[in-house]
Specification:
- The radius of gyration is 12 Å and the shape is globular.
- By secondary structure, the protein is mostly helical.
- It contains four helices and no strands.
């Protein structure tokens, strides 16, 4: 996987941590939260499957603000050539 110069912000990392601890968070939210936390403080880059999941979440009018926050962070750290 290629290196990424962007990292998850501390604010988004906090949202991600709370999401992973929440019993009411959806599977999509937990997946995006895990990806966002993986990219906090590292040069990890979003994988293609996660990028697609995040993109769908951003496009959906049913997505909550938490989901869109996490998805936006994840998409911003994806491979620019895809």
């Amino acid at each position: 996987m290629a290196n990424n110069s962007k990292q998850t912000s501390s604010r988004v990392a906090s949202v991600a941590g709370k999401t992973l601890q929440s019993g009411s968070a959806s599977a999509v939210q937990k997946s995006l939260a895990g990806s966002a936390l993986r990219q906090a403080g590292s040069s990890a880059q979003t994988g293609a499957a996660t990028e697609q999941k995040a993109s769908r979440a951003l496009d959906s009018s049913k997505s909550s603000s938490v989901t869109k926050t996490l998805a936006g962070s994840v998409v911003s750290q994806s491979n620019r050539s895809r």
